[in-house]
Structure formats: C-alpha cells, structure tokens
Specification:
Elements lengths: L2 H24 L4 E2 L1 H7 L5 E5 L3 H6 L6 E2 L20 H10 L7 E5 L5 H16 L5 E4 L2 H6 L30 H9 L3 E4 L3 H5 L16 E2 L16 H11 L7 E4 L5 H12 L5 E3 L3 H5 L15
Helix pairs in contact: 5-10
C-alpha cells in the first residue's frame, strides 16, 4: 500500500470515529439531570412534555414545554379493559399534535414528588419505546429537583407547538397480551409483582376484583427504586442491592405487573433501561385484566387470623 492509500485509509478511519462519537454524544440517555436540561432547554430538536395537571402547568412550567394529559395515554381496549396502551394511529396523532416527529428528543418532566409521579413518566416512556421511538429521556427528580437547582427558571405562558408527523414503528414484543403472559408463566419465567405487600399477599384488591398475585411471583414494590419522598432514582449500586435482597434476578427473562400497568412501568424502566436487562417486559393488562378472568390462576398468601 503506497503512502497516498495509507493517508486515505487513516482519513476514513478518523472520519468514521468522528461520526461514531457524534452519534454517541447525541444518543438519548434514559435519565437526564436537571443541570443538563437547564443547559439544553433552548435546543430546537428537544420537546419537553410537562406531566403536571393542567392547573399546575398554568401556574408554572419549563420554558417551551408542552402540557399533556396522562389520561390520553391510556385507554379502554376492545375487550373493555381500562387504562391500556392505545393503538398506533391514535398515538401517531397524539404524539404529532404535541410537536414531535421521529427525530425529536423527547424529555418527560413529571412533578417528582413521589414514585407514583415518576411512574407517570415511565409509563409514557414505555409507550414511546413500544412505538419504536428511542430518542426519549426522563428528568431525574422531576420538576421539583429542577426547581431546587441554582439558576432554574419557569414560564407561565402556555406553549402550543406546531403539529408534526410522527410514524410509529410498533414493537409488539413490548406489550405481550394475556395469552402470551399465561404461556410465559407456564414456562416458569420469573414474574415480578410491583404492587404493595397487602395487594401481593391478597389482603386487599381493587373493588370487586379477585385478590391475590400471579402464582410464583416475587414481590418488589415499585416505590423502592426512588429516594423516599422524592422523584430521584437511587444510584445503580443501590438498585442492584434492592434486586438482590428481594430475590429478583438482575438479568434474564421476566415479566412485571401491578394493577393497571402504571406502577410496574417504573419497575420495567429500572430493569430494562437502567440495568440494561433487555429480556425484562411488563404486562400492560396486569391484575385488572388477569383477575377478571376466572380461568386464570391467582395465589392468595394472606392468612386471616
């Protein structure tokens, strides 16, 4: 190889490394910190979705952020099961109306007062992922953490974005239906119950609903993953410790569930996104669908005195 060829080869290598590093620099991470958001709020390729109530949004919100109603992200399915993942066409329209296209980096900004607040974000995050959109992040600690940072500022003027075209690339493996979940259970795969201890043992349940847990499930309540009284996730070492003490494997196929697919979205987010277990899935229908089926088993661990 002559000197010219060597030079061209090295130039191509440098160019490819530049492209790779540029891609990595702009890749969305599952969590972004308040300081990062403050420094990037004015970037044209970012859309911040404010997950407060409409009244909270009117009082104060991040500059340029768009309000969205959590209730729009979960609907009754064709079998009458409430709070389920909407269909592709519905979501394409909803997301497009929020000024988001397939190249937009979406930042989800929940209130951040509790694990339940953060689960609003993780549920919508999961929805975007199920629709094939990976360019999405959650504000760690939510709006409360952002407000506590020096230099943070808010706006009161509502922002109405120009609608864009969004086209989902549906990943059906993200939302197994009840038939597939039963088949997975029969194979002996790990099931994780993200609800409270009282729900897990069958002491309480939704109104008119059969009590109990999916047989063989391990309890790992969703609220253990955030610092108590906040919306900030524990660091990875602490999260791994929580998994190990609960008996839930860090890797391998597993399905988590709760009551309506809200709380368990946070459990899925921790396992699939933060710990990188791509074999972790969540059951959207959860017990509100499972318990309504008398042909499906439930295990009651509670012993009345």
């Amino acid at each position: 190889m002559n000197s010219v060829s060597v030079f061209v080869s090295k130039l191509l290598q440098v160019f490819l490394l530049f492209l790779l590093s540029a891609g990595l620099a702009h890749a969305a991470t599952p969590l972004v910190e308040p300081v990062w958001l403050l420094e990037n709020l004015d970037k044209p390729d970012i859309r911040v979705l404010d997950l407060q109530s409409s009244g909270g949004y009117q009082r104060a919100h991040l500059p340029g952020s768009v309000s969205t109603d959590y209730g729009q992200w979960r609907v009754k399915d064709r079998h009458g099961v409430p709070k389920m993942l909407p269909g592709k066409d519905y979501l394409d329209n909803l997301i497009g109306q929020l000024g988001i296209d397939n190249s937009t980096h979406v930042i989800l900004a929940p209130v951040g007062a509790s694990a339940s607040d953060m689960a609003v974000a993780t549920r919508i995050y999961w929805t975007f992922k199920a629709m094939g959109h990976d360019n999405i992040s959650i504000l760690n600690g939510g709006l409360i953490a952002y407000s506590q940072m020096p230099g943070s500022y808010f706006d009161q003027e509502a922002h109405v974005p120009e609608a864009k075209q969004f086209k989902s690339q549906v990943r059906a493996d993200y939302f197994p239906d009840v038939k597939e979940v039963k088949a997975v259970l029969d194979r002996g795969v790990t099931f994780v119950d993200s609800r409270s201890y009282a729900e897990y043992i069958g002491k309480v349940a939704g109104r008119g609903e059969r009590v109990g847990t999916i047989p063989g499930s391990i309890l790992l309540s969703f609220d253990r993953f955030v610092v108590k009284g906040s919306g900030r996730f524990h660091d990875l070492d602490k999260i791994k410790e929580i998994y190990q003490t609960s008996g839930v494997p860090l890797v391998g196929e597993q399905i988590s569930f709760c009551h309506t697919g809200h709380r368990t979205s946070l459990s899925w987010f921790v396992s699939h996104e933060l710990l990188g277990n791509k074999d972790a899935r969540m059951y959207d229908g959860s017990t509100i669908e499972w318990a309504a089926r008398p042909d499906l088993p439930l295990e009651v661990l509670y012993q009345r005195q």
